[in-house]
Amino acid sequence: MTETTQWTEPAQQVDRFVARFGNQAYRLLAEYAALPLVLTPELVHYLRVEFLRDGRVPWEAEVDLLLSDLCSQVGHELYAMDTQVRAYLLHQMQDDAVWQQRQREVAQVLISYVSYLSRIDPKRRQKELDAQRLAAMTYLGDESCQQAAEEIVERLKQLEQAGAARGSERGIRAELAQLTRMTQELAPQLKQPALAEFARLVQQLLRNPEAVSLEAVERAYQVGEYELVASSFPVRLPTGTQATTMAGFPPLQTLTFETGRWVAESDETVATDWPTLEAQTVQVAELYFADEAEAEPEPDSATQEMEAEPALTSFSFEVATIRREGETDQWVIDWVPGAGRLYEEPLEDDLTLEMVAIPGGSFVMGSPENEPERQSREGPQHQVQVSAFYMGRYPVTQAQWQFVVALPGVERELSPAPSHFKGAARPVERVSWWEAVEFCARLSAYTGREYRLPSESQWEYACRANTTTPFHFGATLSPELANYHCSSVYNDGPTGDRIDETSQVGQFGVANAFGLSDMHGNVWEWCLDHYHSSYEGAPTDGSAWIDQSAKENKPRIRRGGAWYDVPGFCRSAYRDINDPRGSYSVIGFRVLCVAPRALT
């Protein structure tokens, strides 16, 4: 590929972005935003204010950039610039002496900024901060660039050792994917061809091992004093690759030697004759076992289950409550910090599924008779006891859907791109109930954990998060907090301009007290239960209400409302139904895991 051809598409993307807003200053902001590996709204704002003070770049350009096709959302308030666009912008500036000096200034500021974030917010994702720091180091001269390369190689060797020590293979592969992808992004600055080539090989093995030759898998890449060999890591190897490691044992080594045996040349050969010796080459493996007295005790089943559970990490979020201001009688929003715990199910590269720990408890399910726009099928109210579980922080996104669709099927085929409104970080929609169940089955088979749709009572319990108001936000809904038909009024609440399509998950930067986002609006979410016209006879233990004798396609429950719906349909207690075969641009889903231990 010629250099001109290589940059054609990313150049057109940047040109379209600038032309859309008719302001060449937008290109300047994009150039600065190409330096960090990961972007946040506050970081883009910081870069604009710190380096573009002359006012040529308007403040709204920050939002326009992050929501453009130059960037994609990779987490809550986390964005990444398209790899090719970033490489193109950096390539365009590499021979500009003035810009090279400015790059060093930005890098110094970025390192200070990362250090500042580490101090004020220890709960912030460390991987994000490390990536920012290493990216900045590559612009500070050869010595810092060499140090960045050494840190990457050192971490790779630690992952290699963790694999040999039988660490969590999924966790190791996830970090390996993140680290090698970052290495590829930084390859032009690192100027370490062997490290870049090794990173490219590992990325191939993680995506499509059958496309990699056996020779490449065993090739040694020398980076400084370290030697990197892909087969030493817990990656999928191409079919036919000779295994050089065994779980729990050090790598096997080939030992070449000569051995002899007696061979009689004829029946008349006597014992006093010298034999003919034949040379043979064999492989020998030595296995060392601890003495019985030193052997570790066999773990009991409880210990094994604990070891199979993923590590929970703390995360922070903002909880909003909408209320009337006493003197003015106007609706105001109060913001308070919240904290929760979650685990991340690694899928591919930087793609994970965030599962929030929802504590067990009891709640009153349904709506009171005096709740505005209440419907009879929301009652009678009844007490439900719910055990602890884990629930997706957001509805399943199109990126997550596409990854799982590529996994082996269980019972039915799935479309890789069913959604009407396209976007990797938007919720997947136009998914039937049966297709959502198939997604859960494939995800369970891949992860070894039991994923499924939530029961209706689990969904409402998770949505309310210990509130009793129509919305977990309070007595009404605001267009500042959710994506819905906000030109309609609920309970004399505020109105606004409608989005009229799905929005990226977490776009509003708000969650309920459990840490779940987008529970009101954006897309409806499928539940396990069959539809019943009231709660008479409903389970009170949090389980799904399933009619064992029902026809296969009896209507199923959906909850939460969507971008198209009036606020009354987005209430915590509101229930609606659909044929499980139906798929619409207003219906998606989120997943639940009862206990994140490995299936046995």
List the helices and strands and how they pair.
Elements: H1 3-6, H2 8-21, H3 25-33, H4 41-51, H5 60-66, E1 71-75, E2 78-81, H6 83-93, H7 97-120, H8 126-137, H9 142-164, H10 169-190, H11 193-207, H12 214-218, E3 220-223, E4 226-229, H13 301-308, E5 313-324, E6 331-348, E7 351-358, E8 361-365, E9 382-386, E10 389-392, H14 398-405, H15 433-447, E11 451-452, H16 456-464, E12 524-530, E13 556-559, E14 576-578, E15 587-588, E16 592-593
Parallel strand pairs: 12-15
Antiparallel strand pairs: 1-2, 3-4, 5-6, 6-7, 7-10, 8-9, 10-16, 11-16, 12-13, 13-14
Task: Give a structural overview.
Helix content is 33%, strand content 15%. The chain is an alpha+beta fold and 600 residues long. The strands form 5 sheets. Strands 5-6-7-10-16-11 form a 6-stranded antiparallel beta sheet. It has a 4-stranded mixed beta sheet with strand order 14-13-12-15. A two-stranded antiparallel sheet has the order 1-2. A hairpin with a 6-residue loop joins strand 5 (313-324) and strand 6. The radius of gyration is 29 Å and the shape is globular. The two termini are 49 Å apart. 38% of the residues are buried. Residues 242-249 and 288-307 have low confidence and may be disordered.
Rounded average pLDDT: 82
The gross shape turns out to be globular
Span of the ends, CA to CA: 49 Å
Q: Radius of gyration, Cα only, in angstroms?
A: 29 Å
Structural class: alpha+beta
Task: Describe the structure concisely.
It contains 16 helices and 16 strands. The protein has 600 residues and is an alpha+beta fold. The radius of gyration is 29 Å and the shape is globular.
